[in-house]
TrEMBL record:
Keywords: Cytoplasm, DNA-binding, Phosphoprotein, Transcription, Transcription regulation, Two-component regulatory system. It is found in: Cytoplasm. The modification 4-aspartylphosphate is found at D53. This is Response regulator with CheY-like receiver domain and winged-helix DNA-binding domain. It holds the Pfam family Response_reg. Coiled coil: none annotated. GO terms for molecular function: phosphorelay response regulator activity; transcription cis-regulatory region binding. Residues 135-234 form the OmpR/PhoB-type domain. SUPFAM superfamilies: C-terminal effector domain of the bipartite response regulators (SSF46894), CheY-like (SSF52172). Residues 4-118 form the Response regulatory domain. It comes from Schinkia azotoformans MEV2011. InterPro entries: CheY-like_superfamily, OmpR/PhoB-type_DNA-bd, Sig_transdc_resp-reg_C-effctor, Sig_transdc_resp-reg_receiver, WalR-like, WH-like_DNA-bd_sf.
Length: 243
């Protein structure tokens, strides 16, 4: 089945350009020209991916993103911004966007990023059964990760993670004990050169800490290695680590 991409932008020329290139790449495309309509379509029709402009009439992209995450709609979101203000980009990521691009952009690069994110979030084919006895399970402290089901649990409770948060947590656990630089994490989890803007990693690390650390100021799982990056450690006194 074709993946459905929802494109929300108030510039008709951009909608037409993206729709043409995405259809040529094999996607089904839905469009909206304001945030209110885009939010409604995203909730009612549940697209596989969303390209969302930051500056929109009625409801801006930041508010759309915030509303979707509050309603537990975790569709992957690529946010578009024409602004040079880095605060807008980081704010979008903090509210649950998976990626961002600055206008003007290459339509080919947009398609490439959409495909890359969808590849990393597509875990199993539709209707393919999962053998619970054979599926991979990763235990680390009080964390349990089921990669095939795209689920992670902390102290027995299902974590509500965006696709990128899940990918980052999975990569950290699979590389536990190793010091991972921000550039390494960008390359492994985002799968392309992010032009050195490593703050996207810091934002997602902060989100994960809020969900798995008792005290985010004194983390026991995701440790900061000053001047280098991050390291996933097992909490002291908890040796429950196995694959």
């Amino acid at each position: 089945m074709k993946k459905t991409i929802l494109v929300v932008d108030d510039e008709e020329s951009i909608l037409t350009l993206l729709q043409y290139n995405l259809v040529q790449a094999g996607f089904e495309v839905k469009t909206a020209m304001n945030g209110e309509e885009g939010l409604r379509i995203a909730i009612d029709e549940k697209p596989d991916f969303m390209i969302l402009d930051l500056m929109l009439p009625k409801i801006d992209g930041i508010e759309v993103c915030k509303e979707l995450r509050q309603k537990k709609v975790f569709v992957p979101i690529l946010m578009l911004t024409a602004k040079g203000d880095e605060f807008d980009k980081v704010l979008g990521l903090e509210l649950g966007a998976d990626d961002y691009m600055t206008k003007p952009f290459s339509p080919r690069e947009v398609v490439a990023r959409v495909k890359a994110i969808l590849r990393r979030t597509q875990i199993i084919e539709e209707n393919e059964p999962i053998d619970s006895a054979e599926q991979e399970k990763l235990n680390h402290g009080d964390l349990l990760i089921l990669p095939e089901q795209y689920e992670a649990f902390f102290e027995g409770q299902l974590l509500e993670l965006t696709p990128k948060e899940f990918e980052l947590l999975l990569y950290l656990v699979r590389n536990k004990g190793k010091v991972l630089t921000r550039d390494q994490l960008l390359s492994a989890v985002w799968n392309y050169d992010f032009v050195g803007d490593t703050r996207i990693v810091d934002v997602h690390i902060s989100h994960l800490r809020e969900k798995i650390e008792k005290n985010t100021r004194k983390p026991i799982y995701i440790k900061t290695v000053r001047g280098l990056g991050y390291k996933m450690e097992a909490p002291k006194g908890n040796e429950k680590e196995s694959n």
